[in-house]
Write a structure and sequence with these properties.
The chain is α/β, with parallel strands linked by helices. The chain has four helices and eleven strands, in the order E-E-H-E-E-E-H-E-H-E-H-E-E-E-E. Helix content is 25%, strand content 39%.
């Protein structure tokens, strides 16, 4: 008998001063049996950083042809593809061919840095790719916020990100390792 996903509920209030986006999202996250709290919370953070009414979670962990998070237009065309972790370079290349914009939120400290160094030359060819490396201390701290029912606030202002619940507040440190160079089609 297969182990089923664990369901987490999050009430996420987002105040993104940089995009003038202020919304509350009631989210349901299915944590795959092999997924850690850290990865799940990075998915949640990636959602908050790119929040939009059409943004939704995909089956990226179990299906190579789906993103962890994506936004499609009304015709079904993929506007934004988001992956978390350290995905295979071939999958990123394929995503860049399918979506207007691709963002990878990598994490894991030295492992993520080595992954980026190994794939840097291939990534430079992908004009619609952005790679953001989240600090290991930050991802471990947000993992500690994981609960089956969460009340979270995410504030984005002046290039800084805070994620907090009623007990703790985490400043999320990150480095943009590669910014998209292509003009994104809307």
């Amino acid at each position: 008998m297969a182990i089923k996903a664990t369901v987490f509920k999050a009430n996420l209030q987002i105040a993104d001063m940089e995009r003038n986006y202020y919304q509350e999202h009631a989210l349901t996250l299915a944590r795959h049996p092999s997924e850690t709290d850290e990865r799940m919370m990075v998915r949640l953070l990636a959602f908050a950083l790119n929040a939009h009414e059409f943004l939704e979670f995909g089956q990226g962990m179990t299906a190579d042809d789906e993103a962890d998070i994506w936004k499609k237009d009304l015709t079904g065309a993929i506007e934004l593809w988001i992956d978390v972790g350290i995905p295979d370079e071939k999958l990123i290349r394929k995503a860049c061919g399918r979506a207007n914009q691709v963002i990878v939120y990598c994490y894991g400290g030295r492992v993520a840095e080595m992954w980026f160094e190994q794939n840097h030359s291939q990534f430079e060819r992908l004009q619609n790719l952005t790679v953001i490396n989240l600090a290991q201390e930050s991802t471990r701290a947000i993992a500690a916020l994981a609960q089956r029912n969460m009340q979270l606030q995410c504030t984005i202002q002046d290039g800084q990100v805070w994620l907090n619940d009623e007990h703790a507040s985490v400043i999320v440190e990150f480095v943009v390792q590669k910014a998209a160079s292509a003009r994104i089609r809307s």
